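Quick start: read one record
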Amino acid sequence: MSHERPARPVLGAAAVVMYDGRVVLIRRGKAPSAGEWSIPGGAVELGESVEAALRREVREETGLDIAVGRFLEVFERVERDDDGAVRFHFVVLDYAATVVGGTLRAGDDAADVALADPGDLDRYALADTVRRVIASAMPGIPAGPGAR
């Protein structure tokens, strides 16, 4: 289901997933941010709880089953086209999570998946807001300002 040109903001959930001391990252396969590395997540479906959506999205994108941990932050992304019309508008609830099962693999709209050493995040050219939410989940990881 496309969330492009929505009539209202789309609620989403994303997770900083820790696996053997590393962070699970996905390379986005679709807009917005196609081709960029980020944390796994996606839209909440009608009738679905935020935590259930988060578990489903992480499983679909990474093959991993998670335990949802603490709430980290609210992130809002509004992307406009050249005419100023809203192309995407997401309100995303970010959580910490840990792996409890599954097999790591890219799936659904993730073009690739990686286990990143927290000290080597620069090689993934993460948006500053992705770095910030990872840092909020893992004290000691450098964060920066910007847009996810």
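The radius of gyration is 14 Å.
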